[in-house]
Structures are given as structure tokens and as C-alpha cells.
């Protein structure tokens, strides 16, 4: 008996039949005596359909108007789910981001939630109603419609759960939880019962796309228990918490392995090793709105240095164009680009208390003759860049070596 | 130089290309120095698409939730038009019914406008902006989204024009004005330069579907000059005003001929001619939500009476079922139904000052051997019910006899 916030993604509400299935699931929770708030995305495909309409008119759609248009996607699904619940004899009411109200700043298409007025929702819950809220959208101080950016519905769910002091925020999606790694690469991958916010953040930023990073940050900040589960089956999913369960005697050293093929490496060779050189190379890249992931700098014997960094694969061409100008300014010898790389990351809070994780990782890769091109570490993560063709081999070997494989059935 | 409210219907914004054409037209008015407020419908077909989604979930969609869903249609078109205007260098801003705010009562799916807060629009107009408002929708006192019913965008346009004291409310549609009669039946039909509100109301209620009746009533009540024109061509369209132009020396006796095939006639024969008999027959019809158009009662020689009335063709079966019960109660002899009838109406404010319009109408029909089954008159209208097969012949003969034919080219 508590307040449950349930968020269903686009594939879970893709058509009337699936919306009916969501209504069945919501009804079960409601019948058990829970107060249920549902947050919905737009039907999968709808956002792309709307963007295509805008692009047919202009290459640069005005962000304010994009938000007016894009916010209609969730407005359709919330109304349909409310109808489906009412058909099942449950009193339900839908609300747009404006109606709730989910107050955001005015950064159209990527707004941030500032406050939520929960009075209306609480009154509905107390009256026995199920409340259905449009995800992804809000309203600024002047009454303009805003959106939170792709995947923003997760953030809406977590923010509502925080505002209402919900017992749990359940994120229903098309996977049944967070896995030790992508089961398409490692069939022995295991669903995690729990994972910490920190681990989830590292895994998300390393390429595991189960949850939006902002939603995890938000949940961590407000200590909202977050659970990822499948909207197509049953099961406990994965609970994301502050720490692993107290009674988990054998806390895992490594919780999961994330990887990302979508990276490219750029090396600026023979740069004079003088102060400020990194900034002179990277500032123009940032100015061009290119995000940088890993950075590495080696000093050569001749007093010059090689400067290496990675960017998203789609930004490689743009980054090259920027660097060619910069290279002359800093008298670099040459620029080398490599699009055939991949990043593999071990993630786990247990790493803090266990020495030797890094050396074990490197020896596992060495045994498979996989050369490490770059290394980056944090408190709970070790990431390496390798040749893309070794990605599957590397992930499988590490998954097995760190005892992540599921027991044979 | 004045405030122009322009309303574009669903076919005028059916796709991005047509929205661009609307933007071109709006730009021309804006460039001439007018302050322009645009009211839009949803893309044609969109409302039906949404209704089909709701019907896939439930046969009885909750009206409140229907409104949440249906209001998205205009929200998409207003954003797209604003983008198209901004692309043309015009500062533009879109508003939903909630944002404006168009305050209505809470009668979901058929709400009535109670008030409009025009502060925001005036500020935008004064800043040189074009304001694009979602038609068909509003918001009630509790912040719930409401809709005005089919064709409600016309009403939004007129209400905004009234609130802003606009110089004109222009209704852009797929016809280029109001005609003396349907040109598909009479190729010689002429576009009217002006028509009065009263005439327009009679023509609309008699089956001419250019404008929504509520919009015309609203315009008449607040004395808003209303103009119907084509969004696909140029031309002055038809101006709907309080009276025909002063300088129109030869005010027409008849402005137009409306007709309606969608009627059916029911006769209850041999009813005792006692007080209250009409009410005993018609009350059950009204209770069954069947609208009655014309009513006629004849007294027979034997002291009994025949009672005849017309209903929409689609209600004929339902009305028969009701009447069969009633017939016993009032000891009627028999019930006769006729679905093969049509109504033809002459409309014109000039009728008031010209005797002999009725007799001329009857003699024209007699000359063609068309039998008149029912007659109904108002101050500015004479309507007759005839056999459906004579409809085209009747309309053409009357159109010619009352000098409505366009001069030969």
C-alpha cells in the first residue's frame, strides 16, 4: 500500500492493444490498494512522424514551436489510457505537463524541471483515482509548453515520484531489467537484482541505454527507489538503489560491463609540449558543439607531445575539419583519425575495495592478444579503447573472468 | 491597416505544402501592415484518425479525455504554421486554447466560449508578431481542456475577432464564397457579394454547409464582419453583414436557394383532434434525441386529424419505432413513413417587403408539375417539401424564375 509511479515507454503504448495491456497492469496495482500515478511517452514512431512534418517545412524549426508540436504525442496516449482505465471501472484522469503543472526553465527542447505542483494529483489519488500524466513535457513561468529532450519521460516519472514521496518509481520498458552486459553479445548475461545509482550512471554513460542519465541522477539526488522492468512480462526487474542490499554478503566486485561502438579516436601528433596546448586544441572542438569523451596525452622524447581524444562516430568528420585548422596554429606534425575503435568498461562499486581489478582486466585482454589503445578510470569504472573487431571477444572474456556469467541452466 | 482574424479549415492545412501556402497568404496581409491573428483547424483526416484510436479502445470514450486527445490536432498545425512564418522572417507565436486563454463552460466535446483573455494576443500584435491560435478548443475554469464540437474553429475565429474588435473575420475554406445555390446542381449559380447574417443562418439551417451556424450567430450577435473566401485562389469571397450594402439599389428579393435531401417524413393518421395531442406525439420523439424539422397538422372532416413532421433521414427507423408505441396510446389509425422527400427553401431578407414571393414559388413548381407536400415559412424564408426526384428540377426552375442565374459569359 503506497504511492507507485509507473512510467511506460513508447513501445509499451505503441497501439490501442498495448495501451489496453498497460491498463490491465495498472488495474492490478490499483486493485491491490496502491495509489498509482502513470507517466506515458508518445506512441513509438509518433515523435519521428511529427519531426518529419516540421522538417518538411523548415530545416531549422523554432524550438518553442517544436515543443508545442512534440508535446501532442503524449497528450494522445494519456487520454487513451485514461479511457481504457475508465472502461475497466477505474476512475482515471489525464493531465498534460501544463495542467499538473510540471514547471521547467525556458530551455525549449531540453528544459529542466524546476518544480512540480502536486496538489491536484494528491487530491485525485485521495479520491481513489488513477492519475495519468504526460511525460517529457512541462510548462515555463510564462505558460509556454516545454519538452525535456529525448527520453525525458523517465525524468518526469522520477521527478513526480520525488515530489509525491512515492514508494517506488517503476520504469516499464521492452527489456526486463538491467543486465551484466548486453545479452545479444553475451548470451550468459545475467539480470541484476540490484544496481547502485553510481553504477547505473557509469553504465548509462558508457553506452548501456536502459535509462536516461538525467533520470538516474535525479533519482539518486532525491533518493527515489527506481525499478526497471518489462511491460511485456512479469518479473521483479532491477532495483536501482543507493547501495547494494545489506544482506548481500558477497557484494560483487564488478556489476556489469558496458561497451560502446559509437566512438572514434583522433590523434594530433608532434605538438609542442607547452602549457595551454590542450585547451588550444580542445576549445575549438567544444565551440563546434562536439562532445569529447576520453582524453590522453603522451610526452615524446623530443619534447613534443601526442594528444589523443575520442568523439562520437557521427562527429568524426566535423572534428577533423576543426582540427585541420587548429593543427596549423599549434604547429602539429600530423592528425590521425581512427573510426574503427570500441570502448569497453568494467563498472562496479566493489572496485573501490578490491585492488587488482585493473591488472586482472589487462591480463585477460592480453591473453586474448587484444591491444589496449587508451585507458580511463574513475572510482567505480575502468574503460579501455580497443580495436572494434575485438569488441565481442573482449566483452565475453571479461564477463566470464569476472564471474558474471549466469549459472548453466 | 487593422486587425484581421483569418481562419483556415482542415483542407487548407492538410499537409506541409498547403501550410506553406497559408504562410504566404498570411505574409501578404502582414506585409500590407495589418495585424493578423490566424486560427487553424487540424489537418483534414486527423480528427477522424484520433477518433478511430479512441474507438479501438472503447465504444464510449470519456468526453473529458476525448477533448484532451482531439485538441492535439490543432496544436500540431499551429506550431507548423508558426515555423513556416518564422522561416519567412515574420515573428510568429502559436497558442493553444488553454494558453490564450479561451475560457469555456465544462460541457466537454460541445463547450461554449464564455470569455477570452486577449492581453497576450494584443501584446504580441503590438510587438509586430503574427499570432496563431488553435481553433476548436478552450479551457474550463478548472484548467480542463475542452472542445467546441465539429466546425468549432469557425466559432473560435469569430469569438477572437469579437474580443479583439477586429476589422474582419475571414473564413478561408475550399469554396470561394456563398453561392445563390449549390453550383453542382445549378451551373449558373452566382457567388453572392454580400449576404446578411439572417439569410446566412436560414441557408445554413436549410442545408447549405459553408459556415457553422453557431459561428454565424456569434458574428451576428457581436456584429463581426464575416467573410468567406477560398484558401486556394484569390477573390473577394462573400461578406456577411448586418444588412445588404446601402448602395445596392436593387436589393434582391431572394438571395439564395437552399435544399436538403437528408429528410424523411412521418405521418400519423386519424388521431383524435384533442388538445395536447401534438405534445403526446412529439415528446417521446424529443426524448429519444431525435430532432424534428417541419411540423404540419390537418383537421379531417370526421373530427380526427393527420399529424405530419420531418426528421433527419438517419433517424427515420428510430422515429418509427418510437411512433409505433405512441400510436396505440393516442389511438391513431396508421403511421406512414416517406424517406424519398427533399426540402427546397427560398431565402432572402427582401421577401419581407415583397408580397407574392410564395405564390410565385408555388406557380413555378406547379408549371413543372411538382406537387408540394408540406410548406413552412419564416420572415425571410419559404420552404417546401417535395418528392426527392424533382429536387434538381425544382431548384433550377426557381433559380431561373427568381433571376438568380449568372449572366451568360
Automatic annotation (TrEMBL), chains A, B:
Gene3D superfamilies: Acetylglutamate kinase-like, VC0802-like. It catalyses: L-aspartate + ATP = 4-phospho-L-aspartate + ADP. Keywords: Amino-acid biosynthesis, ATP-binding, Kinase, Lysine biosynthesis, Nucleotide-binding, Transferase. Residues 266-340, 346-409 form the ACT domain. InterPro entries: AceGlu_kinase-like_sf, ACT-like_dom_sf, ACT_Aspartokinase, ACT_dom, AKii-LysC-BS, Asp/Glu/Uridylate_kinase, Asp_kin_monofn, Asp_kinase. Pathway: Amino-acid biosynthesis; L-threonine biosynthesis; L-threonine from L-aspartate: step 1/5; Amino-acid biosynthesis; L-methionine biosynthesis via de novo pathway; L-homoserine from L-aspartate: step 1/3; Amino-acid biosynthesis; L-lysine biosynthesis via DAP pathway; (S)-tetrahydrodipicolinate from L-aspartate: step 1/4. GO terms for molecular function: aspartate kinase activity. Its EC number is 2.7.2.4. It is an enzyme of class 2 (transferase). Belongs to the aspartokinase family. This is Aspartokinase.
